[in-house]
Amino acid sequence: MSNSTLTVGFVGLGDQGLPMAAAIAGAGYPLRVWARHRGSLEQLADTPHTPHDTLNGLAMSSDVVCLCVNTDEDVHALVTGGLADNMRRGTVIVNHGTGTPAQAIRIAAACRARGVDYLDAPVSGGRAGAEARTLVTMVGGPTEAFTRCKPAFLTFSSSVIHLGGHGAGELAKLLNNTLMMMNQANIADVLELADHFQLDTRALIDVLQAGSGTSAALGMMAAGATTTPPEMIAHLHEVLLLDMNLFEAAMRESDAPATTLIERGYAGAHRVPQIVETLSR
User: Range of 142's domain?
Assistant: First the structure.
């Protein structure tokens, strides 16, 4: 299916969704957008797109509708609030947000009852990755729907990976987030020990980044420590805790043996301000 024959709808023009939508349009896909607040559409002034006054209108005119909203509850409300009922049979709804596998399965069932396919396709990389078009997109859902949508995902991603059925994309995202936070806990432990020995912290970071102890978490912490405003650090702290809440809920819901990962992940999320403070000296 060529770019000119796949019409993509988009809902959620926020910090990450806006550059994702712009990337889709920039690659030649007809872009349809709807927003609760018309002011949000002004950010697409320089991007080819067709705005819709109603969610139903967007649904009827789209082959694929990508959602980049805050919570599973927001996704479910959109899906059952007119989106799935007004899309043609065989079209696809895609959730790019972070949620739980169980909720992805429930939302997929609501879509299936209306003859619409569903993919959970959370992304990793934040706004910077969306702008650079280097997001990692993790997808759960039917292979045929994934194959149809993958070219559109590649407009904003450097890697698009199909992991299995509904919920697999969300599980992969939660595991990825938790591993990052576990790495942050390790970084905090190492820096605390370095302080005990009065080791030059910045020099140590240079060693760790160049050596086998490096990680994406270390790179992000080192790069942002001296340039990120305190209010952004506080926001990041809140976001990481929300991600851990989702991971814990998913593990409890499936009765998974994940106590160690949950505890270590929370430790990493809570200690981000400590890491930044140490690296900012």
Answer: 3-164
Q: Are residues 183 and 160 in the same domain?
A: no
Q: Do 241 and 133 fall into the same domain?
A: no
Statement to judge: residues 17 and 155 lie in one domain: yes
3-state secondary structure the chain: CCHHHCCEEEECCCCCHHHHHHHHHHCCCCEEECCCCHHHHHHHCCCCCEECCCHHHHHHHCCEEEECCCCHHHHHHHHHHHHHHHCCCCCEEEECCCCCHHHHHHHHHHHHCCCCEEEECCEECHHHHHHHCCEEEEEECCHHHHHHHHHHHCCCEEEEEEEECCCHHHHHHHHHHHHHHHHHHHHHHHHHHHHHCCCCHHHHHHHHHHCCCCCHHHHHHHHHCCCCCHHHHHHHHHHHHHHHHHHHHHHHHHCCCCHHHHHHHHHHHHCHHHHHHHHCC
* Averaged pLDDT in 10-residue chunks for the chain of 281 residues: 75 96 96 90 93 96 97 96 96 98 97 97 95 98 97 98 98 98 97 95 93 93 80 90 97 96 97 90 78
Stated pTM of the model? 0.94
